[in-house]
Structure prediction request, 450 residues.
Amino acid sequence: MSNRKPETGAFFQRDRQWHPPAYTPEYKTSVVRSPQRALISFDNTLSEITGPVFGHAMLGELDADLIYNYAKPGESAIGQRIIVYGRVVDERGKGVAGALLEFWQANAGGRYRHKREGYLAALDPNFGGCGRTITDDDGYYRFRTVKPGAYPWPNGVNDWRPAHIHFSVFGHGFAQRLITQMYFEGDPMIWNCPIVKSIPDKAAIEQLIAALDMNNTIPMDARAYKFDIVLRGRRSTLFENRMEGN
Amino acid sequence: MVQQLGYLKETPSQTAGPYVHIGCTPNFAEITGVYENDLGVSMVNDKTQGERIILRGRVFDGTGTPLRDALLEIWQADSKGLYNSPSELRGTADPNFTGWGRCPTDMETAEYRFETVKPGQVPFKDGRMMAPHVTVWIVARGINIGLQTRIYFDDEKAANDKDPILQRIEHRNRVPTLIAKRDGSSYIFDIYLQGDKETIFFDV
Ligand SMILES: [Fe+3]
Prediction:
């Protein structure tokens, strides 16, 4: 986590109007899995302000390359080759160094490598579908993969997930823990999806749509999509001692 | 017009979906050879200080069916009450204890299970001590934003009675939803997403 002094302030209150509510009946599985009572609110304690750290040393050479990290030697995953890159910042716009990002996705045909997955699209023997990386000192990350396919899922009679990549993000405090999904610019399926539409605000949905960035492509190899991630900001601890009455 | 504060909005949450294991515990999902081990499978080693305990239980939906596709993470202090985190400025935590664990619910039994140590006490903002507790984060298909709760321990009654968070809970009959029950070297903590026994979840 570089040489920066660790911050110890409490995180900003989460804007629960911006996130999807727990109960979203169009996404049917949420109906019996959504708490019905009000959440109990309290300001962060040390238990939420602190969080685990993951070092670059744990990363394997191909962890951030889904085209090759499961492929047999000399082979590679099938599909449109893309780079996904961006910056993890907090709500104050400060880069989040040392953030662990884990990502997972279906293959180019829309099929996951999972024993519970029943979609008839073919498995790609050279695609596992998982990767991970840790942000650099300024919060930047990048990885290479293939563009995932859309897939049907049992919800409505004919619901399809738009192409997407799942992201799990660790910031510096356990209260910043976040799982989300990245969508792709120009995909008309985004606006039909009950999971996307669990988010009430259109601007919030747009925050999940990665932009095609032809300036960051690797010519003759892969196109690039930019996906920035914002984690909760935290308060300054400047007056903390006085606030605590010391 | 006034000056703009210029804050960004937090990236909105989306469900972890049914295949969260692929990304977070690929070896458990039988995707082997990519990572040596799944992260968070082991919190302790032979040198870890403190009382060894097992935390286990199941997560039930509103029909009483246990979830077989959930993923839980826990975060806790070491046996002396210190967090293994750069934001921990009170001292250095036990280097043989990570404080963080991750466990999918079993695809057959629906049980989650953490081998850990009993946490020490951590101070609240005003200096009062919080009772020993473990922070829990739960994601799954159908959960739109990760659910946060805490595990307290039924053999810490005196500390629980003085805990500033537990004291704040208005509906006293819900407090037991946060307290794990000792069973030998295990503590059982079942989580109810809905219904009469709904676990208390926090906005924190
Ligand atoms: Fe998916």
User: Anything to note?
Assistant: The mean pLDDT of chain B is 97. The pocket of fe (iii) ion is lined by residues A 161, 164, 166; B 17 (CB under 6 Å).
